[in-house]
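User: My advisor asked me to double-check a structure prediction for F-box/kelch-repeat protein At5g43190-like before group meeting. I don't want to rely on an old file, so could you generate it fresh from this sequence?
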Amino acid sequence: MENKKMVIAKEMDPKIWSKLPEHVLEYLLSFLPLKTFLKLRSTCKHFKTLLFSPPFISKHSPSSSSSSPNSSPFSSFFLLSHPQFPRQYPLFDTVHNNWRNLSLCISPVLPSSSSLLLSSSNGLLCFTRPSSNSFIITNVLARTSRVVKFPTLPFAFESLTLISLPNNGYKLFVMSTTGSSNNHVFVYDSLVHSWIQFGGFDLILNENHNQEGVFHNGYLYFITPEPYFIVYMDLNTGKWQRSNFELPIELTFARLVSDGDKKLCLISGNGSNGISRSMKLWELDEKFKIWVEVENVPELICRKFLSVCYHNYEHVYCFWHQGLICVCCYSWPEILYYKVNRRTWHWLPKCPSLPDKWSCGFKWFSFVPELYAFV
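Assistant: Sure, here is a fresh prediction for F-box/kelch-repeat protein At5g43190-like from the sequence you gave:
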């Protein structure tokens, strides 16, 4: 009996939680295991908002971790979209260098089966849902989403790029041929929830339709089809300019990639008569306004990549992912990537869950989960 009384006496009065200052409660709850914390979201509105509290963000954000990036509970991934994986997106963990057993499932946030993944940026994914004439911006980790209606109806678009901004907002760049044969550009700003229409640049697309725009130093960059040159657009004013940085000669294809801030790189095929004999990586020296050759892709790797795309260079696209420059082919289930800090080339192994009989349609995305990426 005495032991029982001692246990009862030591039990905490549940009412004490309601008397704790809010910042103390947030600090205590931030020490819960991530899995337990995420389950709390459905219990009350206040717990759902705790995902974005300073203590939780500071504890679980990779950028604020005091140890190595591997210590963060959030990893970074290559995300594969393919028609043979309807509504399931296989994930390759680029921190631990292996395929995850579980794919990313979007059913809770996108119940429609007609949704198509178009772009990704800073933990956000952009889908299109033609049946409802809208785009869907979602943070899968936080299970939040926003419906963005098409700017006009009917609306036919050929290129979309999702751009995350430093002010915790984002923009959608959409190139459309609605209403005439000339291109028009629509830019959606998440901070004001509205579209603005600008004039387009007619020479951007054609063979580059698999390549998104490249955001660098506040501008969105594109390479035109042959004869190749670079154009860029100010997302605020809609003004287009042609770059005065001359491209290397004897290009058979060219794709841009950027870390968003310091580096603007170029992946090129080099040869003659439209046939690539080699591939090179270049970096822009903005001070001297020239492209500097960084690497010549090793011969065996180059031969394999050129053989799998079979000189259909319109299938080639590139993107930046956590210090990696990724070169992909729409018709091939592997990624060729370059580790910038080690200056080495590697192949990503084929997804083990991919059927033996696969077809074209491989679209890869950089996916870095961020709880605090607002939609």
